[in-house]
């Protein structure tokens, strides 16, 4: 036997031979491949069976099941699992039982409990057809990764501006002409200003929008807007708190003028370049009220305290402004009634957004439905928020990141509408 033949035989036995020259080796390779395929199929079937069993237990654990009384006792029925896809991400189809809705799997804490039992971070339910849904198991928070807001601006307040991305990866837009004021709350450094910056840069160029308002921090409004048509309608800083009250009262006067001149057979002002939507930004509004309330009170009969003037003006803008093309964006650490000018004022916000806040604050702004979400959201990362209102269920979103403050200034300088344009 030659050395080459000897080597071939050894290779043949150890199953390492390849290529057309190796007689018989193809058979071994095929057998090994077949074996591997069967092992793989068996493991897939075992995985699918264990997933179905755990899903059944999980459904029983969170009462997404039916108890059927039979002669032998009580049988538990759970939604039937159909096809399982390994993924990633792993997903499987489920047939809804009578009376069940797709949202039942994610309602309240159900989503988290189901997902955790199945070893996933979270889940997404996608209606398929008829009574079937597909449940996707997510191995990480879909809102974990941030996204950057492109440098764009809308040509009109009718066009939606980007305010976030949902857990399903959909981009969420909001048109300023939608009939609602925006209320945004969140603790220090949770992302409120970043959201406002994103909205404002997108609106800065629209000829039918005027960005006005009060900002005691002087960072969101004020200096970045120098040279734009918006700047004269903004009051900043804490040097002259009465100037904030005066601006808000001027806005109320303008609102009254508009309301008095609504054309016949119309119930609201249609904004245009002559009568633009006035977007009233109230950055750190509770801080403004605190500063105003800290001023010496005028003597009896010598005028109204500045804090009360601000409260009255904002309440009027909130309750009557929609028809007159006024939209308010209020930012506060917490939407406590006393901090934002009363419970009635708080109720006027049709679109509500909460960044990281304590559980009770979340419920305060979004209602009792948000209670189960509170504990987890109390530790939310900056830029992750809950949004509800204007026909939308309470949903978790990731707000886009604009960049550092210099980027905000550059975008306002680039897009901010100027008089000669
Ligand atoms: N959407 C986002 N994506 C990624 N990071 C973000 C996002 N929003 C905010 N951040 C980070 O959090 C920081 C604080 O954000 P921001 O200034 O908007 O908070 P804030 O709620 O306005 O806080 P404060 O109450 O102190 O004014 C930002 O500098 C940024 O690093
Ligand atoms: Mg801020």
UniProtKB/TrEMBL annotation:
<dbReference type="InterPro" id="IPR002543">
    <property type="entry name" value="FtsK_dom"/>
</dbReference>
<protein>
    <recommendedName>
        <fullName>FtsK domain-containing protein</fullName>
    </recommendedName>
</protein>
<dbReference type="InterPro" id="IPR027417">
    <property type="entry name" value="P-loop_NTPase"/>
</dbReference>
<keyword id="KW-0547">Nucleotide-binding</keyword>
<feature type="binding site">
    <location>
        <begin position="186"/>
        <end position="193"/>
    </location>
    <ligand>
        <name>ATP</name>
    </ligand>
</feature>
<feature type="domain" description="FtsK">
    <location>
        <begin position="158"/>
        <end position="364"/>
    </location>
</feature>
<feature type="region of interest" description="Disordered">
    <location>
        <begin position="1"/>
        <end position="23"/>
    </location>
</feature>
<feature type="compositionally biased region" description="Basic and acidic residues">
    <location>
        <begin position="1"/>
        <end position="14"/>
    </location>
</feature>
<keyword id="KW-0067">ATP-binding</keyword>
